[in-house]
Amino acid sequence: MSEMQRKYLDFEKPLEEIEKNISELREIKKRKNVDNQLQITQLQQLFREKTKEIYANLTAWQKVQVARHPQRPRTSDYIDGLIEQFYEFHGDRIHGDDPAIIAGIGKFRSKSVAIIGHQKGKDTEENIKRNFGMAHPEGYRKALRIMKIAEKFSFPVVTLVDTPGAHPHIEAEERNQALAIASNIYQMSEIQTPIIVIIIGEGGSGGALGIGVGDKIAMLEFSIYSVISPEGCASILWKDQKAVKEASEALKLTAPELLKLGLIDEIIKEPSGGAHSQSQEMIRTLGDYIEKNIAELSSIEINALLEKRYEKYRNMGFYKIENQEIL
């Protein structure tokens, strides 16, 4: 349990009750000087066991809720915890700046890197400012601008994906949202420096793909990655937004399903109880993953790296022609 007051999801209510009991016993111990440490220790053990039990059996919809948890570490938390001398860039040199995407250069464990990520807010005020992590075209152009700088100086690129989707409103379309995303997808396929993509929360549709092309694609254990939200899918296919549980299962949006389909390369394990329960541990784990993969990808000659990147995406999925399955 973190020092911040933890917000519990509906299926975590048993954990909330145990934590409440622990708090009450601690208050009694403090006020009445009662030796009840054994009871506290037993409840702490029960909390850990119940956490493992709950998180070992999450449904797809419950994983969606964990991926969206308001206390889940954001891009800014990973930057603060892992990047030294971070220099943030602003603007796309065409229209303006987009606070839904953070992008810049810094030192990661003594190596220069470019880091780019969607930024959701931690409260209502910041969410409005950050547009809930839904980027405008200028956000994607800003991201590409930083990638081009990284390419020029041979810095590896790390992107952190956490968005419900690209900004869907008319002003984004007027500024050519589709072209901005398509341009990023195309140009990221040819950027001559290693790219590591990590889905840290929600990976929503084209909004995710706009910074989601790379040599290594990883997902945190309880993150999600999908062409559409469960709510959107439910309203289209079931004609009922309440069918989110069925939609979540049908979309195959969880990390194990996507690994099985070959759409991601690796799952990064989260702490017991999810990234939101032990954020510092999650930040260290993500740092170790990034360090390992930067070393691995940097050892590959650039033309070979680009060829492997091309083959990765060329081999995704399959289609059928007259009963013949073609990979």
Tell me roughly what share of residues is in helical segments: 40-55%
The CATH superfamily of the largest domain appears as: 2-enoyl-CoA Hydratase, Chain A, domain 1
Sketch the major β-sheet: 8 strands, mixed
Shape: globular
Q: Give the total of domains.
A: 2
Beta fraction: 15-25%
Helix/sheet category: alpha/beta
Give unreliable regions as ranges. none
Task: Output the radius of gyration.
Answer: 21 Å
Q: What is the CATH topology assignment of the largest domain? A: 2-enoyl-CoA Hydratase, Chain A, domain 1
Q: What descriptors fit this protein?
A:
alpha/beta, eight-stranded mixed beta sheet, 2-enoyl-CoA Hydratase, Chain A, domain 1, 327 residues, 17% strand, 14 helices
What is this entry, summarized?
With 327 residues, the protein is of the alpha/beta class. 48% of the residues lie in helices and 17% in strands. It folds into two domains: 10-57; 64-314, 2-enoyl-CoA Hydratase, Chain A, domain 1, CATH 3.90.226.10.
